[in-house]
Design goal:
- The structure is a single chain.
- The chain has about 325 residues and is mainly alpha-helical.
- It contains 11 helices and 6 strands.
- The chain has a two-stranded antiparallel ribbon with strand order 1-2.
- The longest helix is centred in the last third of the chain and has 36 residues.
- It is elongated, with a radius of gyration of 26 Å.
- About 20% of the residues are buried.
């Protein structure tokens, strides 16, 4: 995480800001070539032998290869993948999303180019078939799959309409996609498709392990959170009775006073000191979301930040502590 933060501060200005649009545009170009000029795809597909002869553009141009035949379901899925890619880019930031996508392309290139001499050294018919399968299986299909897994990991409680009809949570969709990947890995009998599947998973695992603070999964940290939640529950129970008494006394006092029409109190009956726009009582310091944006959001204060800084569950354990009004360099 520290390395990625340093890279972002130094190279973040070079990040591609509309990468989701460019990805979908490449897909549209690939499907168009497949329909009007299929021979052109032979010059852009992943071919390790041609790459070794100097056609290095194939290391990148294979992203034009259509992962499936064009149909109405393909069009729907393109819109879906554009939406989740755009959401991830807005959530992570352009630099981190660029790292994730280009990291997947780089890992695929390295894995395939390392596998090529291994297959050549075997000298068997099966090895020759595996080499021939590279131009068919090295497509953006598994990059799209890694994007879906990343979105399901980032927004597990988000609900989408599959094919605009079936409501499903992203956590279940991510589990289903993982099962399908495992089944595909088991079902295919050739090494090339299995390697492509593994490389897409490696990209997903490397990125999320490098952007998460694994200390929070330690037994010590789990015990600390459990004790904090227990203490917070006791404090809520004891403060509830005080708030009830304060609310009753406030109602008795306000009964003798006339409140001007259209005026709004800045303190609720329950004793909250801060009321955000539209009546929200909680707001994340990082993303600015409130309980009005999603009723399933949970908010907590950070005891290590100076001042009263509140965070949603997505940023409670990943934010940078605030000291003297500015974030520190060390994430939680």
């Amino acid at each position: 995480m520290k390395l990625l933060n340093k890279l972002e501060r130094r190279f973040g200005r070079y990040a591609i800001h509309e990468l989701p649009v460019i990805m979908i545009a490449f897909q549209v170009v690939g499907y168009t070539l497949a329909m009007v000029a299929p021979n052109v795809l032979n010059w852009v597909c992943f071919d390790p032998a041609s790459i070794c002869r100097g056609q290095v553009w194939r290391l990148v141009s294979w992203v034009l290869m259509p992962p499936s035949e064009l149909s109405i379901f393909t069009v729907i899925m393109l819109f879906f993948y554009y939406w989740i890619a755009r959401t991830l880019a807005n959530t992570w930031g352009d630099f981190y999303f660029n790292i994730y996508i280009f990291g997947g392309i780089l890992i695929t290139d390295l894995g395939m180019m390392l596998a090529y001499p291994v297959f050549l050294s075997m000298g068997t018919m099966a090895a020759a078939v595996n080499i021939g399968l590279m131009n068919a299986f090295v497509t953006t299909y598994y990059i799209q799959t890694s994007i879906l897994l990343a979105f399901a990991f980032t927004y597990p409680n988000a609900q989408v309409l599959l094919y605009f009809v079936i409501p499903i949570k992203m956590s279940w969709l991510g589990i289903f996609e993982a099962i399908m990947l495992a089944w595909s890995f088991y079902k295919v009998g050739m090494a090339t498709p299995r390697l492509v599947i593994l490389l897409s998973i490696v990209n997903f695992v490397i990125y999320f392990l490098s952007t998460r603070d694994l200390k929070r999964f330690s037994p010590k940290e789990a015990a600390r959170r459990a004790n904090w939640q227990k203490a917070a529950g006791q404090n809520r129970a004891s403060s509830f009775s005080r708030q009830q008494g304060a609310a009753k006394s406030s109602q008795q006092t306000s009964a003798n006073k006339e409140t001007p029409a259209g005026s709004t109190s800045r303190r609720s009956a329950a004793g909250y000191a801060k009321i955000y726009p539209n009546g929200a009582r909680h707001r994340c310091t990082i993303c600015g979301r409130t309980e009005l944006d999603d009723e399933r959001l949970e908010f907590r204060y950070c005891s290590k930040c100076e001042g009263n800084h509140e965070y949603c569950q997505d940023h409670l354990f990943t934010h940078q502590h605030i000291r003297n009004g500015v974030p520190t360099q060390d994430p939680q």
